[in-house]
Specification:
alpha/beta; Nitrilase/N-carbamoyl-D-aminoacid amidohydrolase; six-stranded mixed beta sheet; 9 helices; 14 strands
Length: 353
Amino acid sequence: MSGDTYPKARVASVQAAPVFLDREATIEKVARLTAEAKQGGADLVVFPESFIPTYPVWCLLLAPIDQHPFFQRLFENSVMVPSPAFSSLQEIARANDLFLSIGVTEKSDYSLGAMWNTNILIDPEGNLVNKHRKIVPTWAEKLVWASGDGSSLRVDDTAIGRIGALICGENTNTLARYSLVSQGEQIHIATYPPCWPIKRGMNSTGGGYNTADITRIRAAAHCFEGKLFTIASSGVLAQDAIDQLCEGHEDLRPFLENVTPAASMIVGPDGQLVAGPITEEGIVYADIDITTEIHLKGVHDIVGSYQRFDIFQVYINRSVQAPAAFYTNERIAMAPSAPGKENLPVAAEEASD
């Protein structure tokens, strides 16, 4: 048969709880669950938002003045890229010969306190494919995480398809989602926390969104608009985490033990569920065929035939944002975590060329 062919893959969404604020023990759990997903035939396995070392749910529950001990533990157990912890994740991907997507709290190498909500994608050879930092921490998350920039709002062309990722509330950001669709996204990774409490007694099951429904709505919308697959992975709030969060704050226990659980699922390019949802620890699998996206694009293609580029224009700044640029007449030096020389003054030796 003549013509081009497009990838097929088996993808896996993990719903699990980390070992609360214990980086090394959580990485060991990642290794076990990744090996299990490999046994299930997965080519890509996706872990939840800030799985290492945990999602900082305390920022939604405690007054800022009570958060300092948790903030310090989070920083101490966060992941620097590169670092031995990151190397362990690379080895997990390499040993299982698959793509590994995992949410981490990433810490800075130039500030003893700066952290980002980051999604890491590693290929089967252990290479870093992309490191996406959440562009705007949501609500109380601003007490913990700094903002990312547009440099990682990109789609990467891989052997199993063109992969993009957004973290939790970014999946409600129309322009962030469009930026990925406009780059030919075919597989979308969406990661979520174990719960999202925003108001005491908000509903009959606890103070938060019905996250299973919200995740389903977000995934279906993005899939249907972009004609692509979404792998949604959410965390679990384990009893040990609840016990540590409630130490000295026992009034929170009934609230946390009844908060609405999150959900993980895989959704197809027609907006329909392909696998899941699950709301407890487990792994959900799906076989996806990128070819199925084609005929749906013939009906609605919001970056092709079903768009008016003469009416709507979208501009995306993909510059790396550094805290400072240090330069002399001889050379330019930047902060360690800020690669590139975009938008910096030109050194005298370069200006004379």
